[in-house]
Design a protein that fits this description.
- Helices cover about 50% and strands about 0% of the residues.
- It is an all-alpha fold.
- The radius of gyration is 28 Å and the shape is rod-shaped.
Length: about 70
């Protein structure tokens, strides 16, 4: 496996600038995760509303049980 730093962004200076850059990337990733989670929740809510309601059970359900062997 070849790992090179050619595609990585160049950070000028040292110390806090790297921390700020890293925090910025983390914030952007958290925002993207939040948007994805909200989209998933909205999709789940809309598909649940689109489903047909469950059939109601009747009072006689389960009264006849076959016991023949």
């Amino acid at each position: 496996m070849n790992i090179s730093g050619n595609n990585l962004p160049v950070m000028s200076g040292a110390g806090s600038s790297g921390e700020v850059y890293s925090a910025s990337l983390a914030k952007k990733q958290q925002q993207a995760d939040g948007r994805a989670a909200l989209a998933l929740i909205e999709a789940a809510g809309s598909s649940a509303a689109a489903q047909s309601p469950a059939k109601s059970t009747t009072a006689t359900l389960g009264n006849n049980i076959n016991v023949y062997v």
